[in-house]
Amino acid sequence: MRTFALSLSIFWRALPCWALLVAILYAIFSFFAESPILFLILLGFGAGTLMVFMLFVNVRSGLIVADEVNPTDLGKLFLRSFKFFRFFAIFNSLMGGLSLGAYYVASQMGIFDFDMAVEAVTTGNTEALEALYASLSRPSVYAYTTATQILSQIAYASLAVPMAANAAACSPKARDYEIFWGFGAGALRMFLLMLVAGTIVTGMVLVYGFVLLTMPVFDGLSLMQVTSLEELTAPSTLSAYLMIAVLVLFPIAGFVWFISLWCAGATLCFIDHRDRKQAENDFEISRVFERPHSAEDLRALRLSRMKGTASGQA
């Protein structure tokens, strides 16, 4: 429940940043309206960094709620966003290679027929495609897909604490965490959180689909009642406009909340992992200071214990 409460706090704080990002992208697109290819090139290079930047903003919002960070250094925030995106790209490439390797091993074990899949895709033969669909419906394929998806989600959940640590480092006097600091910490916890969140989102999508089909936004008609394109008229009443606004804004708000929930989980996992590491370091330091360092110290300690034993016997 602590994660869900923090996600709502992050949601309200990060929502203006997402709106500002959309406005900036719209302004850039309008500027490059005559050369959309150039815009797509710029978006391709900057989309990953911008996404990481927004994740960092969400995490820092959660850290601010928990009173865990100092004011943000924008220079560090942009630089860390770019560095972490490079780290994520390398990690993603590694995961892609492992996925291909797992598929090759599965094909050697007889779970998949690689040659049949290539033939069906390249030729487009109806019988080959039907045979491919039939082979993908076997229980062994479902088991393989489930296992690889679980392992993949746990692997990506391992990035939660490193991402939050890098976001926490974007302050003028903050600790300079390594890019991969805390990798793997809280991975199972994040996986379970995403499992619960995925179930909630699935329910929300079903409700949204039902409302979308049944809400009377076309002059009293819903999508289920529309029988021809001519009946899809523009709304003429204020209530119809409000219903359309709700239908448009609801999925956007759901996306932002889902990101906020993930970042809330990453923030709490980072705080717990950092505090646990700090407690372990403090314990080790206390043991170093309590440990005698010389033969004289050991002799004095032994004599004091012998005197204590003698006085106790007396």
Could you characterize what this model shows?
The chain is an all-alpha fold and 314 residues long. Helices cover 77% and strands 0% of the residues. The longest helix is centred in the last third of the chain and has 53 residues, at 238-290. The chain is extended and about 100 Å long. The N and C termini lie far apart (60 Å). The relative contact order is 0.10. The mean pLDDT is 80.
CA gyration radius, whole angstroms: 28 Å
Mean pLDDT: 80
Shape: extended
Please identify the structural class as seen in this structure: mainly alpha
Question: Between the first and last Cα atoms, what is the distance in angstroms?
Answer: 60 Å
As a percent range, the share of strand residues is under 5%
Helix content: over 70%
Most strands sheet: none
Tally of DSSP β-strands:
0
Q: How many helices in DSSP terms?
A: 10
Sequence of secondary-structure elements: HHHHHHHHHH
Low-confidence residue ranges: none
